[in-house]
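Internal QA ticket QA-208
Title: Verify multi-chain structure generation after dependency bump
Assignee: T.L.

Test input:
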Amino acid sequence: MVLVLAETQKGKFKKASLEAVTYGNKTAQVLGTDCAALVLGPASGLEELGKYGASKVYHVPDAGLDNFDSQVYAAVISQVAEKTGATVIVFSHSALGKSTAGRVAVRMNAGSVSGANTVPTLEGGAFKVTKGVFSGKAFAEYEIKSDIKVLSLMGNSIPVESSGGPAPVEELSVEVPAARVTVKSLERVEGTTPLPEAELVVSAGRGMKGPENWGIIEELAEVMGATTACSRPVADTGWRPHHEHVGQTGIAIRPNLYLAIGISGAIQHLAGVNNSKTIVVINKDPEAPFFKAADYGVVGDLFEVVPRLTEAMKKFKAEQG
Amino acid sequence: MKLLVCVSKTPETTARIAFTNDNTAFDSSGVQYIMNPYDEWYALVRALELKEANGGTVTIINVGPAANDTIIRKGLAIGADEAIRVDAEPQSALYVARQIAEYARGEDFDIVFLGKESIDYNGAEVGAMVAELLELPFVSHATKLEMDGNKAMIVADIDGGDARLEVDTPFVISAAKGLAEQRIPNMRGIMMAKRKPLKVVEPAAAEDLAVSVRFQLPPEKGDVKLVDPENMDELVRLLHEEAKVI
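Actual output:
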């Protein structure tokens, strides 16, 4: 059985979790088995995960699991995996998944691949799966040799698919150890999709000349429903917050659309974004290296082009109704 | 405070990535290597700052061959007191984690630091594995760490937000951008590093349960399609009808 950890945020399943359940179901089909989802902590509407391919949803409702501590989560997930006979355990490659998957791999003596971006294959008994390596500059196929396998799924790697009906929910009682990490508070940027999950990203760099000019970027992003990002020099000089920095030493992202405005496209920046499905570059320098990695390019002054693009997007949105 | 910083060796950030032996191995010819930036800039420097403020020692540990001594010496030049190299060619995160845990067990480190991930295999796994092997708490993607006695106040990235956390030593922490500022070693540090202890130890027995079998470069992009800067309606049309992303 393939067991998928489905994370919730403010009582709703994260998009990354729906992707993970879809992925778990596809993995189960390859292995000729079923996919079950696991939800930790108080939550409702769990049967909904059936739509995305879970044939069953296990729930450990202990209130203590609201406070995320990877040590506690790993202990609980491992107990559930043992109880239910799971052979593959799937996480999202999220902050929570990253800090828990390795622990579960240790506990279960499982081989693990983190940041997987393809459905595993089974050829002559060899379990293989691919992930991005060298910060987006290459892919590597891994073989996992252990009986139990742990995978974490890179966001935006496979689209969410929904077809099934609601799944039965079974509450499980397992031992929940005391947490040693205390969560004092959580602050999330409201209203926008976090960068790792964003499908549309509007990113800007040094070509903006100063932080006071970011209004046109924010307006374009708002019209498009996109998340804003920036290049490293911009984050380093404090024009934009660090959490917006995408690239090799910032966040690696793979949105459907990456719109790069006034970013020259240093190799370290490209490494973090070149798995985006479509890249648009707006730059006044036709020699900017980013154009070589772009699908569409606009050579022009961003202070003229961006407001024009915002107007065109508004018109398009109005036509789409 | 007794602090351990786990450091990894990676190709430098502008290295050309290529593969050899029928795409089964990384082609290291002509590649310059560096200490993984997350390990060096953030994990190591924050550990050094805590030592400077509270006293104690900073030990760095690397799992790798003798060629890694160059980056280990750099860590000593930046300010670490001593180094351990586990003499092995690691193939998987679990293997590395077992070596680190094997050394750290019984050494009673207050904090084990590492970077949030290495920029070569991007696993972000070793920290969680070391923590589990040592039965310690783990906080990942830390952007801020302040100590008050044995209590740590930590701010950590949580996919587009911040978590404020508290944990008592001992614990394992992975560093993200913001935890500290990069330090450049000075001449005095470089000279002193030559005399600091770098101990080489044999690896403990450990299996590789997941190994890379084949590499692939991403498909080449076709030529960029240039759009008239006066005609942004055309760009919107292309994104909608051709690329189908809006």
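Spot checks passed. Chain A has two domains: 2-171, 195-320.
Status: verified.
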